[in-house]
Specification:
single chain; 351 residues; alpha+beta; Creatine Kinase, Chain A, domain 2; two-stranded antiparallel sheet; 13 strands
Length: 351
């Protein structure tokens, strides 16, 4: 049986992934150990941690009572990351991809589990030069966590569409507003989790995969949303990393509100074919962001993202669902080039 620590309903924890770059060149720098060490000398409302690439630092808030507290902690962590980076002539920036980076050329963080992952996944791992926003919502018990996951899953492509913030990859305009979603698709165990009838079915699948030796535990599954029994949370991983703290805040509040709604909503019917609808919508969100059409979760019709957002079970307060941050990146890039995009990301990442 998988270790469980449920019982903290609707608490919030947030993880962000920021790029570390040289202040003069705006190129990525493998300096995460400097930021982690600097954070350890401070009293912070969270942690700075390593990620796969040594040019990325992860900010984690820990457990917060609500979305507002989590956002306040993120503001502190972003400011601290900028200050610590500045002590070494570095900057930080937030976005779903970094426009001028060649991910395969970036150093891997000096952590055994990352090196093991790269040895296993090879080029699929090395291309993971993308950053996402991960939001943990506390759940009362395992069965409720599973039911909430299945209830909010059909709405997550809409969240991805509005969060799209990775149009550039390997120094080119990819034609996708969220290339991050496509790059994640290179990994095994990506996208939506398989369709299970209940938590017991989910747990049996995880047990089978880990028994095979090909996965360490459920954290080796890079799904857009996953149960995290050890934390007692539902971990929502669909959004691109936001540049603006205000947009991060809006997504955190939206995802918590969605989970609160889902806790009290009737369970969705078990329909494995819905995973096909999810994949179509996920692709459309990646390609077009908020400018495409998504199949309605409950009707046989494709509608625009702004139209569908008006039917969200909870209002997307603070989010303009007709645009996304990828639009701004492309506007700046087409006018002034990729270096200007990088400079704009730096400027907007820490208020």
């Amino acid at each position: 049986m998988i270790e469980q620590h449920f019982g903290r309903s609707l608490t919030v924890g947030v993880e962000e992934e920021l790029w570390i770059l040289d202040a003069a060149t705006l190129d990525l720098v493998p300096a995460v150990e400097k930021l982690v060490a600097g954070a350890e000398r401070r009293q912070l409302a969270g942690e700075l941690k390593t990620e796969l690439h040594a040019s990325v630092v992860e900010l984690t808030t820990g457990v917060s009572a609500d979305a507002d507290e989590a956002v306040d902690r993120l503001l502190e962590l972003r400011s601290a990351a900028r200050e610590i980076a500045g002590e070494s002539g570095l900057l930080v920036a937030a976005s779903g991809s970094y426009p001028t980076s060649i991910p395969a050329e970036q150093d891997i963080a000096p952590v055994d589990r990352y090196r093991d992952f790269v040895e296993y996944a090879g080029p699929s791992a090395r291309r993971q030069g993308v950053s996402g926003l991960h939001v943990h919502i506390g759940m009362p018990d395992a069965d409720s966590c599973f039911r909430v996951m299945e209830t909010i899953l059909p709405w997550l492509p809409l969240v991805l569409a509005v969060s799209a913030n990775s149009p550039y990859f390997e120094r080119r305009d990819t034609g996708m507003l969220s290339i991050r979603a496509e790059v994640l698709g290179l990994l095994p165990r990506h996208g939506a989790p398989p369709a299970f009838r209940d938590y017991a079915g989910w747990e049996a699948f995880i047990d089978r995969m880990t028994a095979s030796g090909l996965a360490n535990d459920y954290t080796s599954f890079w799904w857009d949303v996953r149960l995290h029994p050890r934390f007692g949370t539902l971990e929502i991983r669909a959004p691109d990393q936001a540049t603006s703290v205000e947009r991060t805040a809006a997504f955190v509040r939206l995802l918590r509100a969605l989970c609160e709604w889902a806790l009290n909503a009737p369970p969705r019917d078990f329909d494995p074919a819905e995973r096909g609808v999810y994949e179509q919508n996920r692709w459309a969100a990646s390609r077009f962001g908020p400018h495409g059409k998504l199949i309605h979760p409950d009707r046989d019709v494709a509608v625009s993202v702004p139209e569908l957002s008006r039917e969200l079970p909870v209002p997307p307060d603070g989010l303009d669902t007709a645009t996304c941050e990828a639009d701004r990146q492309l506007e700046v890039g087409r006018a002034d080039g990729l270096r200007a995009v990088c400079a704009d990301l730096v400027e907007r990442s820490v208020p």
